Amino acid sequence: MAFIDNLIGATGHWVSESNPEARITQPMAWLRKTSGYAAVNRIIGLSIPFAPRNRFSVEEIRPGFVKARIRLKGNKNHFGSLYAGAYFLLAEIPGGVLTLFDLGPAYTPILKEMTLQFLQPANSDVFVEFSLDAATVEAIKAEADATGRAAFELEGALYDSEGNHVATSMAHYRVRKKGFQAQ
After folding, report:
1. When comparing pLDDT for 14 and 139, which is higher?
2. Residue 150 domain flag
3. Residue 138: CB partners within 8 Å, gap ≥ 6?
């Protein structure tokens, strides 16, 4: 686990210093950004092989923010729209990614409960964005450092490629501080 922890830490540092607005007209900045996202998706694939098999990907990540996507191709249900399990995959993984990269590898995210409210079928790729402000991140760290764990919630709005709100997720997470010893 030390190798993975070091890899997560180094990748988080690399991505946090990249410019999410970088375009191909700025080759070095664009390369830093895209290689960072590729590394994040590779780490996810190594940790959760189910994610890349189902065409999940992180599209943007920066401190306090993550945007992810799941492709319709390969994830259709019996009537041609996005399969319900694909919505859950899309809504669940970014919370762990956000936690790992904002809190660091010393904290392990655990999903305790998640609900999804389906609003309309998605007939395209679906996207979700999550954010945690700096004060919330610091409060989570402080509680986990003091007690060994901390709980928090993430609500996500899932949108199709045309911008239609297709579902809403509510996830309840807990993070555990690795190596915590009660005083």
Report:
1. 139
2. yes
3. none
The pLDDT tens digits for 78-88 are: 999 999 999 99
Provide the domain count of the chain: 1
CA dihedral of 123, 76, 129, 68, whole degrees rounded to 10: -120
Contacts of residue 128, defined as CB under 8 A and 6 or more positions apart, other chains included, come to 67, 68, 90, 91, 94, 156, 157, 158, 159, 169
Judge whether 80 lies within some domain.
yes
Contact 60, 37 (CB under 8 A): yes
Here the CATH number for the domain that contains residue 104 is: 3.10.129.10
Q: Is the pTM of this model over 0.85?
A: yes
Question: How confident is the model over 24-61, as pLDDT tens digits?
Answer: 898 888 887 788 888 888 888 888 889 989 999 999 98
**Of 56, 71, 171, 165, residue with least CA distance to 118:** 165
Q: How far apart are CA 95 and CA 137, in angstroms?
A: 12
CA distance 50 to 44: 9
SS3 percent helix, strand, coil of the chain, rounded to 5, is 40, 30, 30
